[in-house]
Amino acid sequence: MAAKSNLKNMALSLTLVCLVCSAILGIVYAFTAEPVRKAELAKTNASIARVLPAFEGVPTQQMTSWKGADYPYYSVEGAGYAIISRVNGFGGPLTLMVGIGEDGLIVNTVVLSHAETPGLGAKCASDASFIDQFKGWNTAEKRLAVVKDGGDVDAITASTITSRAYALAVANAYEVYKQLKGDE
After folding, report:
1. pLDDT at 184 over 60
2. pTM for the predicted model, two decimal places
């Protein structure tokens, strides 16, 4: 015999379905939380290894503020700092990790996430000639702005806004580095 369709039975059925779905989601989360955390940690450590010279030891994560924005960073004894910088690009948020050595030179940069246009601004994460120009960058000798704005950064073709955002993210990270070193 089928249950009579009334408000009480519908509410009870909906509640039961919600409880079962919630329990399944909770169980899946419990089983996947640790592997996800480990994968994120491995990605972060790989990014730190890409932006800083070879080092021994464990990076120390810390947080600082500059001009009202929070900047997470990793300090590595004898190697420098890996600073995470977020700005708005053409398509949305652009997040970089910028490695700055103990000597104050930019070691390397890596894009952690972006929402740039595929085939154009998205090249900021893959165009080696664009990315490599920041390696060994000395802010005392060169200006972190695109050539179009009087700086020394060669922009990605047809992606000036993304290139500006990338240069700004690197410049902001360098300002945070100066603050951390007490040079500001």
Report:
1. no
2. 0.82
Taking CA atoms, 84 is separated from 11, 74, 97, 176, in Å, by 48, 9, 4, 10
pLDDT above 70: residue 183: no
Backbone angles phi, psi at 140, to 5 degrees: -75, -20
Q: Starting at the edge strand that comes first in sequence, how are the strands of the sheet with 106-113 ordered?
A: 60-66, 69-76, 80-88, 93-101, 106-113
Cα 182–Cα 76–Cα 83 angle in degrees, nearest 5: 65
In the numeric block, which tokens belong to residue 59? 């990076």
CB 159 within 8 A of CB 116: yes
Query: CB-based burial of residue 95 (10 Å sphere; 0-12 exposed, 13-18 middle, 19+ buried)?
Result: middle
What is the overall mean pLDDT for the chain? 92
In degrees and rounded to multiples of 5, residue 17 shows phi and psi of: -65, -45
What value does the mean pLDDT take over residues 127-148?
A: 93
Cα angle 72-75-76, degrees, rounded to a multiple of 5:
150
Give me the residue label for tokens 């059925």. 13
Give the whole-number percent of the chain exceeding pLDDT 70: 97
